[in-house]
Amino acid sequence: xxxxxxxxxxxxxxxxxxxxxxxxxxxxxxxxxxxxxxxxxxxxxxxxxxxxxxxxxxxxxxxxxxxxxxxxxxxxxxxxxxxxxxxxxxxxxxxxxxxxxxxxxxxxxxxxxxxxxxxxxxxxxxxxxxxxxxxxxxxxxxxxxxxxxxxxxxxxxxxxxxxxxxxxxxxxxxxxxxxxxxxxxxxxxxxxxxxxxxxxxxxxxxxxxxxxxxxxxxxxxxxxxxxxxxxxxxxxxxxxxxxxxxxxxxxxxxxxxxxxxxxxxxxxxxxxxxxxxxxxxxxxxxxxxxxxxxxxxxxxxxxxxxxxxxxxxxxxxxxxxxxxxxxxxxxxxxxxxxxxxxxxxxxxxxxxxxxxxxxxxxxxxxxxxx
Length: 370
Prior knowledge:
Layout: H1 16-24, H2 47-76, H3 102-122, H4 126-136, E1 143-147, E2 153-158, E3 166-171, H5 181-198, E4 202-208, H6 224-243, E5 249-255, H7 258-264, E6 273-277, E7 295-299, E8 331-332, H8 349-359
């Protein structure tokens, strides 16, 4: 996407090898739980009864394999993008003492980005160097965190965080790296402009604070990477409240695989609203299972291919229930005709809906009951 939130390809892609394994039922992705098991013969006096038991077990195993294969096949059939980030030299990430204010963090991280760009240029990685210079924005960017190693991590603020009483954190999905960062940033900018037009004391935080899974990988089919990210996101949200205006209302907007990250994050009363959009599932069975006191929202545009991803979860593979299904228990919001990467595109119904949730100006429908 050019103006959307995260990946053009989206979250649910997986390796073709995993699809072959799921279809054949002979192997499984590394680290994944076995999804088909051999059923032991049924004991008893009747040979026919034992045979029936074996056939039933075989049928059950075939069903599991078929479901897993359908998850992978549906994902692989979708368009994909974003190559692996190059391995380039970078300075060590800057660490800050507890209580360091936002301006000091911004200045230190701008210097770190400039140094990372220089090192990338010296290493012949001109593409990465150019992208880093764009991130640094000629000395005006506001980064709370930056790490140029590997795929990279970055946490950027749009707006005046210290005076903001409406703060939104965007959590991206798969294949969001320093090399694809500009499309993530574009969505954050569009949301900030939309919010400030109605409420000047708004700030948006683009949180690329985890190693996102690759679209073409088995990692994107499990919650493992999300669990690791949640351990980073939870503490960050608590610290963020200390950097914003006293009593600021904090919202968490979670795109694609980012919805899995948010669903695994224990936010307690820190967050007012948690919003899933373009979600393939959250690895949770319902909104009631989430460790949050926030209102939980879910929406999907009519042009979003993620709707075709099967909502199954077997042996840790798959991301489970569909958040836009009323049975999940989330509040629904109108997403219009948004495609997977278009939810934060200027002028869209989805952007208007997300802004209204953040600002608290929605009609606040009650969550449906299963």
